[in-house]
Amino acid sequence: MIAFHGGKSTKRSRFGKDRKEQAVGTREAAMICARSGLEYHVIDSEWKENYITPNELENLLRLSENHCSNLKTVVTISVRHTCCLSRTSSLVSVMKDHRNASLCLVAGNRTYLDEKEAERSAARRLVDAARVARKHLEDRPIFAGMERLGKKALETVKEYRLVPFLLMDKSLEDNIVRVQKVNGKGSLALYLPYLTTSDGHDATTEVMGRLWKYALRRQWVRSDLLKRGCDPTLLENTLNQNQAKGALIDNGVTDLLVNAARELSIYGTTQDFIRSFKKLKQLGINTVIGLPLREEEEQVMTFSRYLQQAQER
Predict the structure, then answer these.
(1) Angle, nearest 10°, between helix axes 122-137 and 151-159?
(2) What tens digit of pLDDT does each residue of 62-73 get?
(3) Would you state the pLDDT for residue 82?
(4) Domain locations along the chain
(5) Of 46, 63, 160, 177, which one is least surrounded by beta carbons within 10 A?
(6) What is the DSSP letter of 68?
(7) CA–CA separation, 300 and 101 (whole Å)
(8) Threshold 0.85, pTM exceeds
(9) Helix (H, G, I), strand (E, B) or coil at 40
(10) Which residues, other chains included, contact 304 with Cβ-Cβ below 8 Å and sequence gap of 6+?
(11) Rounded to whole angstroms, how far apart are CA atoms 256 and 212?
(12) 3-state DSSP percent of the chain in helix, strand and coil, to 5
């Protein structure tokens, strides 16, 4: 049986622009992870100004150790950010003294890059960052986001023994095959936005409302919109200005966004999650990092419980 590991993704941007508020929010998220029994806390910085500082990381790791938690803190770094190598070096200098810390290296979505960074080769920068990370973190699992990365990046994943980190997506099965052709049938991790709900509650509208920006960053969603004659950029501007609510969006576009939300996330009750987790296990996924669409402790606790139930079945 494949061991099923779980974790929480924390977006520091949710806690505002003030670094003190980000630190407080990240600390509370770490404590929630520890109380829930999850194994990983993945800190997603997105913007350069959201990166955790070495001092804050040191305090966070000591907090986890002092609470006798098995929680592992994983910091995400965009390899195309100009500060990538200096940031990687400063963080691993802290991590090497703590066994409960590691990195996740990602290409970084263009949304969070400046013009020059967006043109940089992600595959080339992944090699540089992986070399530094593996040198200092030795045998620890280091994750590598696979979004928009080709064969060269997969070869880097194999060479530096990185854990491929995939997105929940309609092409997930194809992406798993692509990774395994180069990397073999080793560990696979999945990034999964989610929302747990009670029986009788249809969360479709809420999930679409929380995920539409994320969906519009997926190329296949933008292509499908264009096929319907809908300009994704104009749609995004309209939604950002709150000029479109429900009936004001073309029904076909609404259906498209709803279907995209279903492909990119899991939401619903116990059986919805258990059924999805069972399928993920069959595909070879052994680590699921969930992004709660509501930043609530109850969501994280329920997610952890569902993972445990899926492991037992």
Answers:
(1) 10
(2) 988 887 678 999
(3) 84
(4) 5-197+269-312, 204-259
(5) 177
(6) T
(7) 20
(8) yes
(9) strand
(10) 6, 36, 37, 38
(11) 10
(12) 55, 15, 30
Closest CA to 59 of 23, 34, 22: 23
9's tokens: 């993704």
Which amino acid is present at 84?
Answer: C
Which residues are CB-neighbours of 48 under 8 A, at least 6 positions away? 81, 83, 112
**Structural tokens at position 240:** 């950002």
* Residue among 169, 125, 128 nearest 147 (CA): 169
> Pick from 43, 37, 38, 45: which is nearest to 7 by CA?
38
pLDDT tens, position by position, 254-272: 899 999 999 999 999 999 9
Report the alpha-carbon distance of residue 144 to residue 246 in Å, rounded: 37
The CA distance from 42 to 168, in Å, is: 16
- Predicted local confidence at residue 246, as pLDDT: 44
Which amino acid appears at position 161 of this protein? R
Q: Rounded CA gap, 265 and 278, in Å?
A: 15
- State in Å, rounded, how far the first CA of the chain is from the last one: 10
Beta-strand relationship, 163-167 and 72-78: unpaired
Dist CA 279 CA 285 (whole Å): 9
Question: Spelled out in words, what is the top-level CATH class assigned to the domain 5-197+269-312?
Answer: alpha beta
DSSP-assigned beta bridge partners for residue 163: 143
Tokens of 219: 């190329």
Token digits of residue 151 = 């064969």
Output the pLDDT for position 68: 65
Q: What are the CA-CA distances from residue 279 to residues 18, 112, 274 (Å)?
A: 40, 32, 9
For residue 136, give every residue at least 6 positions away whose Cβ sits within 8 Å of its Cβ, in sequence order, or none: 92, 93, 95, 96
The neighbouring-strand residues paired with 40 are 7, 72
